[in-house]
Amino acid sequence: MDKYAIVTGASAGFGEAIAKVLAEEKYNLILVARRGDRLEELKNTLASKQIKVLVATLDVRNAEDIHDWIEGLEDKVKNNLSILVNNAGLAVGRSGFQDGLLEDWERMIDTNVKGLLYMTRETLPFLMKNEGSMVINITSIAAKEAYAGGNVYCATKAAVDQLSKSMRMDLVHHKVRVSTIAPGAAETEFSLVRFKGDKETSKQVYQGFDPLQAEDIAEAVRFIVTRPSRVSIHDLVIMPTAQASTTLFHKD
Ligand code: NDP
Ligand code: 8X3
Questions:
Q1: By alpha-carbon position, which residue is closest to atom 6 of ligand 2?
Q2: Which residue, judged by its Cα, is nearest atom 3 of ligand 2?
Q3: What tens digit of pLDDT does each residue of 18-73 get?
Q4: In ligand 2, which atom is closest to the CA atom of 142?
């Protein structure tokens, strides 16, 4: 297959697992994240898959870098772009709104919302050329239900939810499918980032219940991308069995 899929945030967690699944589905890959060493490692582990893997060490917050990088891609890559997985994202901090740090808020807004806008804007002209292309946006249960201390993170994910709905309408005449996946608590590097490297606090988040694993979300992506071109999956909410809402957990 000549088709290419871009996965942002492929250096860890969901993105890494999604890249592996797309490799199994024989998509050529473009792996995007800031930690290029991790992307190179992932590329090496995919060496046996008989697909092409390109690595792009990029910060999705930098619109100019994204523009230049897309422009510099070979035509045969750009013209075969068929999937964009907007997965790169993060929560930073969990304090009440009144104690929130401007710097944390800006990191979340710039990455989760503006980064997704930049990536989508630059790739859409190519995605639109290929009938059946897909944009898959990773939102969160936090997009649907706010919680105390979730404030700006919840707002960024709700923004992506609304953007995805609107994109779907804008792109329907171009036959580009737009899907969202809204996971609940999943054990990745997410909490380590949220709690700024505090391993103890981040470990506690997943104690007493069986959280989602990155592979669970990657399997949802496999389901989305293997549907016939007449089928568009709009929104999947995927929760651990032990989590009924953002804040209601059954813990042993
Ligand atoms: P991880 O922290 O494990 O992975 C996040 C990925 O995003 C990393 O590859 C990181 O790469 C990348 N990333 C972060 N900032 C940037 C940036 N500025 N530019 C490029 N890449 C960036 O977390 P998850 O895998 O859990 O998170 C993936 C997505 O899923 C996020 O959007 C998150 O909000 C969402 N989510 C997570 C849930 C969870 O409980 N884990 C639940 C619901 C949604 P690098 O640092 O190398 O740049
Ligand atoms: C991550 C899940 O509930 O911590 O998006 O916001 S939650």
A1: 142
A2: 246
A3: 999 999 999 999 999 999 999 999 999 999 999 999 999 999 999 999 999 999 99
A4: 6
Identity of the residue numbered 93: G
Orientation of helix 151-171 relative to helix 116-127, angle to 10°: 20
Q: Write down the pLDDT at residue 1.
A: 76
Domains of the chain: 4-238 (3.40.50.720)
Per-residue pLDDT of 188-203, as tens digits, reads 999 999 999 999 999 9
Q: Which ligand is nearest to the CA of 56?
A: 1
The two three-digit tokens of residue 242, written as one number: 């032990």
Q: Which of 4, 27, 118, 153 is catalytic?
A: 153
User: Residue 89: pLDDT above 90?
Assistant: yes
Q: Tell me: the pLDDT tens digits for 71-86? A: 999 999 999 999 999 9
Amino acid (one-letter) located at 21: V
